[in-house]
Design goal:
β1, α1 and β2 form a beta-alpha-beta unit. The protein has 13 helices and 12 strands. By secondary structure, the chain is α/β, with parallel strands linked by helices. The protein has a domain of 238 residues: NAD(P)-binding Rossmann-like Domain (Rossmann fold), CATH 3.40.50.720. The structure holds nicotinamide-adenine-dinucleotide and 2'deoxy-thymidine-5'-diphospho-alpha-D-glucose. The site of nicotinamide-adenine-dinucleotide has 32 residues, from α1, β2, α4, β5 and β7.
Length: 353
């Protein structure tokens, strides 16, 4: 049994689905179901006794203590977080509460449970914290990619809150001996990603004939990784990573945002042509994100060298699968883009024209 937090969100849901397929081992899935959590992401596991879903907060110590005592997990994978940079700019409070305070409470609950385990189980136990490359800050065009030794220089409320959580996890290892592992991954894309993030937003807007908003000059660079590759890397780190160590995960796939958007438009032109003209006609430059990090790039040589992990998908294969998934799952998109989503779009894009 493992306990996954945030398993109704984008990466967490993909992880639970892939985990059950790869290992068959049961999962307790603790998720608060914020705007980003969606039980529809877990629909393929309905009725599967190996998946136990619990709605709740990682900061609810009484609940977490009870779940640990009842299910006796051999590992925790902590995905739960507020994850969207633009939302952290509009309202940082939830980010501090979940990413920092919530992680602290979770660590304390886990420390209490782990300390009381018999020696063999204590030694085999792992707490894997899922984090981001954004903690390292922003790179200039000719800087080397982020290595695990790079100093943290977070620039947004989101990345600062994740950096704080990474530091807490590190300290719980060094001070209390908790066997932790931390992963710092680049930008993910794939099925079930909420369309507030660039790739699903562009697909959804293009299909609806709406503007495709490009922040600034569109030349900000991200490293993109297909989500199932991230899930495989986490499984590998859990299996063979050294406690107390951090592992960078990336796709060796740096691209400017504008190239990403043009690639999606070209795929849609091929798969769902629009009589009104090429989808790229919808590209619209809008006011930049405040403090927008210019470039992220990941040096993933440690996980390759020590654990033998490499991404299976190229960007070409991954983005084609992703666009096809959104075309095949328009009902899912319709459900998540109703109601509160429209309110968010008004708040984030209303004053960017
Ligand atoms: P997401 O926003 O899609 O999902 C987050 C999930 O956490 C949601 O299901 C939400 O309901 C849940 N949650 C939020 N607060 C909670 C709380 N207090 N208690 C319990 N559950 C809570 O995020 P994602 O994109 O799937 O990211 C998952 C993790 O991976 C995050 O920690 C994020 O920082 C990290 N990460 C994301 C990316 C990326 O590109 N998306 C890249 C690297 C790392
Ligand atoms: O690098 C890993 C991080 O990637 C994760 O830790 C975060 O959880 C995840 O959200 C993601 O952060 P980004 O800020 O890079 O992702 P986002 O999809 O919001 O934006 C990607 C790039 O596209 C970024 O340079 C901003 C730009 N952008 C984004 C949106 C939503 C636009 O140009 N227009 C948009 O409408």
């Amino acid at each position: 049994m493992i306990l996954v937090t945030g398993g109704a969100g984008f990466i967490g849901a993909n992880f639970v689905i892939d985990w059950l397929a790869a290992t068959g081992d049961p999962v307790v899935n603790l998720d608060k179901l914020t705007y980003a959590g969606n039980l529809e992401n877990l629909a393929t596991m309905k009725g599967d006794p190996r998946h136990i879903f619990v709605r709740g907060d990682i900061g609810d110590s009484a609940l977490v203590d009870r779940l640990l005592a009842e299910h006796q997990p051999r590992a925790i994978i902590n995905f739960a977080a507020e994850s969207h940079v633009d939302r952290s700019i509009h309202g940082p409070g939830d980010f501090i509460q979940t990413n920092v305070v919530g992680t602290y409470h979770l660590l304390e609950s886990v420390r209490g449970y782990w300390s009381a385990l018999p020696e063999a189980e204590k030694a085999a136990f792992r707490f894997l914290h899922v984090s981001t490359d954004e903690v390292y800050g922003s790179l200039a065009a000719d800087d080397p990619p982020f290595a695990e030794t790079k100093a943290f220089e977070p620039n947004s409320p989101y990345s600062a809150s994740k950096a704080a959580s990474d530091h807490l996890v590190r300290a719980w290892h060094h001070t209390y001996g908790l066997p932790v592992l931390t992963t710092n991954c680049s930008n993910n894309y794939g099925p079930y990603q909420f369309p507030e993030k660039l790739i699903p937003l562009v697909i959804a807007n293009a299909l609806a004939g709406k503007p495709l908003p490009i922040y600034g000059d569109g030349m900000n660079v991200r490293d993109w990784l297909y989500v199932s590759d991230h899930c495989a890397a986490i499984r590998r780190v859990l299996e063979a990573g050294r406690p107390g160590e951090t592992y960078n995960i990336g796709g060796w796939n740096e691209m400017p945002n504008l190239d990403i958007v043009h690639t999606i438009c070209a795929l849609l032109d091929e798969l769902r042509p629009d009589a009104a003209g090429p989808h790229a006609r919808l590209i619209t430059y809008v006011k930049d994100r405040p403090g927008h990090d210019r470039r992220y790039a990941i040096d993933a040589r440690r996980i390759e060298r020590e654990l033998g992990w490499r991404p299976a998908e190229t960007f070409e294969t991954g983005i084609r699968k992703t666009v096809a998934w959104y075309l095949d799952n328009q009902a899912w998109v319709g459900h998540v883009t109703s109601g509160a989503y429209r309110d968010w779009v008004g708040r984030n894009y209303g004053d960017r024209a």
